[in-house]
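Researcher: For the annotation table, I need structure tokens for Formate dehydrogenase-N subunit alpha. Please keep the output clean. Sequence:
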Amino acid sequence: MTQHWIDIKNADVVLIMGSNAAEHHPISFKWVLAAKDAGATVIHVDPKFSRTSARCDFHVPLRSGTDIAFLGGLMKYIMDKDLYFKDYVVDYTNASFIVSEGFSFKDGLFSGFDPVTKTYDRKTWTFDKDENGIPKKDKTLQHPRCVFQMMKQHYSRYGIDTVSGITGVSKENLLKVWDAVASTGKPTKVATMMYALGWTQHSVGVQNIRCAGILQLLLGNVGMAGGGVNAMRGEPNVQGSTDHALLYDALPGYHSVPTTAWPTLADYLKANTPVTKDPKSVNWWQNRPKYVVSLLKGWFGDAATPENEFGYGWLPKIEPNVEYASLFMFDKMYKGKIKGGFIYGHNPAMSMPNTHKIRKALSNLDWLVIGEAHETETCAFWRQPGTDPKSVKTEVFMLPSCQRGEKDGTTSNSGRWHMWHYKGYEPAGDSKPMGWMVVEIMKGVRSLYKKEGGAFPTPILNADWYEQYDADFMAKKINGQFTRDVTIGDKQYKKGDQVPAFAMLAADGSTTSLCWVYAGSYGPGGNLTKRRDHTQTPMQAKIGLFPNYSWAWPVNRRIIYNRASVDVNGKPFNPAKTVIAWEEGKWIGDVPDGPAPPMADPKGVYPFIMHTEGFGQLFGPGRVDGPLPEHYEPAETPITANPFSKQMSNPCMKVAESDIDALAKNGDPRFPIVLTTYSLTEHWCGGGDTRNTPALLEAEPQLYVEISQELAKEKGVKNGDVIIIETLRGKVEAVAMVTVRMTPLTVQGKTLHLIGMPFCFGWTTPGCGDATNRLTVSVADPNTRIPEYKACLCNVRKADKVTELQR
């Protein structure tokens, strides 16, 4: 989130798209309702009517997988009618930048596409530069190759008739949403956009979110109170997990994982440290060497020295252009290329796509270690129905994990608030925190290396490891410390002192930090995640910043890019909802994005400090599948022609290919229905915990499928019947919920049916059915490798015999 939960109350328009916030993020929805009570228009765009829809001013159903068409039409509407925030767009975005002549877009493909590798060479996705190496600009926005004009041309194809025809949204509903959102392209009105897995779990997931970023920049809503792009992060500490590099391609603090193309630290830093010639651009990532060296010092301690590149050579390196994401890790496992593994708090045997393949893949391992609080489908894959345990060679070790309430630690919420939670009671039985498990296993591994040696013992033995797991100690390590006495400005710090903020981190080995964005969370003032102080200044109280409650990264800033909430002279665009203001030579309000003066001052800087050029990116060349979002159909689509171009699906999407993976052809008559999946309020994620909680299982006891009354009539199905849902990957039994919450859509002149299913049920809970993800596709977004759970093709029929669900 660029904002935080409370700030949602400051919005004039709330667009919830790709999220069922009322049911899955109820704390966020408290503030949505506060905004509504204050007069905000609240809109829910989603294939299914839900509790969120019921509390909104209007609900707009659309075909799953067509969000970019819907939002691309909104971009055209805003630009054609001059509804964008002109001063903001000209001064703070790259709308005026001149795109290089080599860039082009034709037939659904951007310049540089290689059909063999299905990747882009992005060298033409650049800007013309002047003699000083600074991007050329046309602040009149009239140059035919300026970003603004390129966008107008790109989205000229997204007229209301075409958008309505492909999304299934009526023109009346399109205009209701477009008018409401576009009304905020002025200083005194602001919209916020809220999304969740309904946007990310597509083969164009990143580009869905890029649409939100582009729209909020056009409307001047980023950095403003009540504005921004707000990701509804999940309950399993998704924000904190991402910050600390849960994903394969990142190191803690959003650094790229080293590859064999960068054999030395110098190579790595050269490739990953951007350079700008513009003196007004902060270009914050120029500090990457400080953060990476501090991370290495945190990992290897005194053993990390300048002479050995702080241990960089000890890190494993991935191969460029080789897939390491979990979707493809299980593909390798299925093909016998992985021998063992650890799975902590994750149930891929029911939550990954095409679970038939996942379960077979687990059977190919020699050994598997699982840390879990309950037996799940992954723990027990070796005895699943239809499997003879004697035929499974995998040796499974089950480590009993305690629950969150049984351990100390922190979580980071969607608004980047880093908060301490205290142990409520001692762990039951022999269960232990997962952190304890990792520490103890590593201690055993180190002991074996010391005793027996090994192929590459140096990084194992040089790791600055811990004798015992302690959450408070880890929080200190994450913040960072000084490794020797240093003087910074007029202040002296002793060896072992906590680093006050990431501005103090250094590239010379004098500091450590296991995640630079968290530097300051546990500084000289102690563990700030434990703060519960509600005090704030009158200015802060007006918008609800609460700066002394817990701690927000970075540097306790509550609204990021907040320098874009003021004009070039530092005066708030909307004085009624001031985030920061330049008064008497200093910033007041929120922690600003740096202490430099406003942009008009000779020493002033651009507001988007994390971007190399310092401007919000309407044209974003950093994505692998295009600098502008383009509508592509899901990997499985009920239509046979994309009305926007010749290219049907994302040309760069990642597809796992094996003898057990299959994709239906476009418009396959065998599977004419679109299936989307979702979570439930009563069950946490895959349900491994909550299916073992009797009251929650009683509330939602078994797998069901929501189908419209029209589809039920067509298939001869009544409410409560058990039906079979089938795709090319497999079939699942579920109880039919015949409901008005799902409605048929008219797509390209034909009636299209959608159905929806929760994914939280599995066979280890008797009588509740098995995984919905038996049905879903092994296809992923090319930027993140997040699978496309939200749209695939299926068919349904009434079960013709008594099933497990009926017994």
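Researcher: And a one-line annotation?
Model: The first strand starts at residue 13 and ends at 17.
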